[in-house]
Amino acid sequence: MTTKAQMAKTARTPKFSSRIVRRCELTGRARGVYRKFRISRIMLRKLALEGKIPGMRKSSW
User: Fold this and answer.
1) Averaged over 12-34, what is the pLDDT?
2) How far is residue 3's CA from residue 33's CA, in Å, rounded to a whole number?
């Protein structure tokens, strides 16, 4: 879980573009964040299984 200070730090514009930290919009997780959806892999899977992400479904082969 992220602290308020960490979320405030990521909200600022960094001095250099390589310092951008992408965090999950829902949980604040810094690792495993999908750029397209701006949410972590865990939340992406959860929302996809609930059918809340249009066009995404669990693959099976």
Assistant:
1) 90
2) 17
Please report the pLDDT score of residue 33 as a whole number.
95
| DSSP assignment of 2-47 | --HHHHHHHHSPPSSGGG-----TTT---SSEETTTTEEHHHHHHH
SS3 of residue 48 by DSSP: helix
pLDDT more than 90, % of the chain: 51
Q: Residue 51 has what DSSP assignment?
A: T
Contact 19/29 with Cβ under 8 angstroms?
A: no
**Residue 52: DSSP 8-state:** -
